[in-house]
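Predict the holo structure. Ligand: fe (ii) ion.
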Amino acid sequence: VLRLSLSSAVLSGPAAAERLGAALCEMGTRSAFVACGPLTHATPIAQGVRESLRAAGIRVAEGVRGSAVPTIADAEALAREIAGAGADVVVAIGGGSAIDVAKVALIALAEGAPVERHAVSYVPGTPPVMPRLAATKLPLVAVPTTFSGSEGNGSGLMRGGMVRYTRSFRDDGVAPSIVVLDPLAGRDQDRAMTVASALNAVAHGVDVLYSRARTPLSDALATESLRRMLDALPRLSLAPDDAAARTEAQWASLLAGYAIRNAYVGVHHAIAHALVSVGGIPHRVAHAVLLPATIAWHLAHLPPAEARRLAERLPDGWERTIPAAARETGLPPSLRAAGLSETALERVADDAFHDRGTGNEILPISRDDILTILAHAWNRHARRAPMEQTANR
Ligand SMILES: [Fe+2]
């Protein structure tokens, strides 16, 4: 059964956040819990959201907690704060971590703690087991400040808990019911962070194209997302506060988030998740290095018709556009340059093999396949040396 899952409402464009209060008021909201990290809390977008809610007569409670790598304990603590506030909607402002932790908090609130028992479980070689999460959740509003795609689906990733692998939660009941795409969001972030986050969205589009759960719907969402993000990328790498480019990239991120909701991610993300757990490499940083390695591996190993389909759906010039944006913004050119030791590769491969993204591929992927991709990404040539001066010839 193909179930089409998209958000119910999107507010987009300049001053979108200012319209949020009125939109929530129409839905009968009287009290909102606004969750964000301490850095986001002081930004104009967060101020705009709070003012919009208050102007609409909505009572605002705030939870300011930040963790670049959110844990199950963070989500349970946030659930207790939300319960204490008695809110009837939660507004998460921030990147993937902030939105993910809000989703898992809402699962904890409705389904009960410990929340870890509601995580998806996956054993390599077998289908993932999705727990049935039937309790009604509080509605979630997402105001993304990055291009994480978390705004487009009900997935949340957490560390901590009983196992060392990244835990994934999945519940369409916590997929944001309103998404606010305001070009003001995240425009204070620097070029490297902006480009790294855009490449995270590119990786979502690419992963979906070789997902075993892919459908014409997820293909269409991923292809359009890739087209828009590759178009915005050169402009974002020059000026991350370019409002038109941010709007384009925000839509690309949302489309990729919807694509994930309908097909989930693959081995590229399994490796990226393991790089966080084992190497402490932030999620968004790995993609500039991993993308050329994972795309090359898939083009070489997919059955010919699938490889052709993947090649046709990658926007023209991706081989140049992606490394150029990474190089121009100073992102590391290899996993080695990102600080990962060679001895850590085996552990990264082991964790990635146990991530359910690996089991979501069209092709069966072995631990050795992952090591091949990792070796390519670890050892990629360092930044190309500047062209030799030829003036003295
Ligand atoms: Fe991602």
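The two ends are 68 Å apart (CA to CA). DSSP finds 14 helices and eight strands in the chain.
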